Amino acid sequence: MNLAHLHLVLNHFPIIGTIIGLSLFAGSLAGKNDDLRRASLIVLAAVALLALPTFFSGIGAQAAVRKDPSVPVDLIERHEGAAILALFLMEITGALALAELWRRRSWNMVAILFFSVVTLGMMARLGKTGGDIRHPEIRSEESGLSALVHHLEPSPVKFRDLMLISKWWWAFMMDLHFIGLTLLIGTVGILNLRMLGFAKPLPIAPLHRMMPWALAGFGINTVTGILAFIGMPNYYTFDVAFWLKILALLLLGLNAAAFYLTNAFNSVQRLGAGEDAPRLAKFFAAASLVLWFAVIALGRYIQSFSDTISIQ
Amino acid sequence: MRTVEESGISTWLRESESPFAFYFVLLFHTFGLALLVGANAVIDLRLLGIQKEIPIAPLKRLFGVMWLGFTINAVSGALLLVAYPTKALTNPVFYIKLALIGIAVWIMTKLSSGVFNDSSLDDVAMAARGRTLAKWSIVLWIGAISAGRLLAYTYKYLTFPC
């Protein structure tokens, strides 16, 4: 398995996942079914998380395919530009879905519907432009809507140069990444520690209500992380520590889903001062702490593990 | 500076290929940051009125987390200084960072003694007394993190110029 292989495996998830998420969401609105609504939002949030490694593996796939001189470079760059636009739309959709899972708002339902439809359109284009790279038999002239969308897509080369325009901009992004980290670790950390039995006089429900601050920190770090990747794609792509960090983030997504979807969350939600959390909740809390600190550790090792993956 | 830089431990930290040299210390410096500033952020947000249902007094336990983070960072910070003394000591940002941390830790002790160690105060009185300190705490820690980040981008000499 190499990064090109990984890209080909992962690239189906954002496309099919968006179709499933949007269909379930539309179905839940039509049928006024709340379980279905929640399920659709979880699918959209999960797809937004999976879209990250799909996007990141694209550079490795590109390095492999560029060795073949018969593949037109402009098709690769068109696909990459489309991917950048699609990724940002997907992340907005995922963030709105998480906000909606947290608290129901009618304007947000409209926003999710709008952004998931636009994301789906962009995903369709992403599949087509990606397919074009290796399949001359499906290539066609761009016209109408796809030509118009092409004008909205960033040029990957220009976007990259923009991220590297000044060391002060880079330092600012990294600074935000660290501030996001403290916001996230502080709020998630105290909740996890409380579930594990630390500071037991604290009731859990109001601590859990701090989670939007953690999600804000995660949002800051997702955006600054993607921008950093766009700025120095080769630096991150061929780095074992970077991929392990992404793996740890996916595991954190699974851990969070398991925490909320098993009865672990319900069992701790109403715990008041001095009450002990059940074993299952403690397990998820410990896993969350270990994984978040692993994310920090792996992030710090990116610099020393550069070029640990060879270009196939 | 030169003497420290030419010492065995400094050279090992800087040049060793082992994953347990420089980057290991750096990762502990970031762990310490997460503990120290993360716990501070929770206390500051609560004192500023976020989630008033969280009782303030039990948050006192977080001072243990903060001092643990501070200790990890004092030790790892000293080791990072041993690894690259010239890089830090010739950069004014380094002294700004130390000053910001100094004031932020002083604010932390004021929060501890003035707000959390006065058992006569209820939550409303604690929040009222801690409000200004909490604001300064947030500003100073953001400043300290930013100065620390800038150290990676603003140094004039990486090692002693020969």
What's the short story on this structure?
Chain A has 312 residues and is an all-alpha fold. Chain A is built from 14 helices and no strands.
Count of DSSP H/I helices of chain A? 14
Taking pLDDT < 50 over at least 5 consecutive residues as the criterion, the unreliable ranges of chain A are none
Mean pLDDT of chain A: 95
Q: Which class of secondary structure composition applies to the elements of chain B? A: mainly alpha
Largest interface: A-B, 39 and 38 residues
Helix percentage range of chain A: over 70%
- Quote the distance from N terminus to C terminus of chain B: 13 Å
Total domain units of chain A = 2
Q: What count of structural domains of chain B?
A: 1
Shape of chain B: elongated
Q: Helical content of chain B, roughly?
A: over 70%
Task: Describe the protein's topology.
The complex is a heterodimer of chains A (312) and B (162).
Chain A lengths: L2 H8 L1 H20 L2 H32 L7 H30 L3 H29 L9 H9 L3 H8 L3 H29 L8 H5 L2 H21 L1 H5 L2 H22 L2 H6 L9 H23 L11
Chain B lengths: L1 H5 L1 H8 L6 H26 L14 H22 L1 H5 L2 H25 L6 H32 L8
Helix pairs in contact in B: 2-4, 3-4, 3-7, 6-7
Structure description:
The complex is a heterodimer of chains A (312) and B (162). Chain A has 312 residues and is an all-alpha fold. Chain A has 2 domains: 154 residues, Four Helix Bundle (Hemerythrin (Met), subunit A) (Up-down Bundle); 158 residues, no CATH class. Helices cover 79% and strands 0% of the residues of chain A. In chain A, helix 2 packs antiparallel against helix 5, helix 8 runs antiparallel to helix 10 and helix 12 runs antiparallel to helix 14. The longest helix of chain A has 32 residues. Chain A is globular, with a radius of gyration of 21 Å. The model of chain A has no long low-confidence stretch (mean pLDDT 95). Chain B is an all-alpha fold. Chain B has one domain. In chain B, 76% of the residues lie in helices and 0% in strands. Chain B has 7 helices and no strands. In chain B, helix 2 crosses helix 4, helix 3 runs antiparallel to helix 4 and helix 6 runs antiparallel to helix 7. The radius of gyration of chain B is 18 Å and the shape is elongated. The mean pLDDT of chain B is 95. The chains are: A mainly alpha (312), B mainly alpha (162).
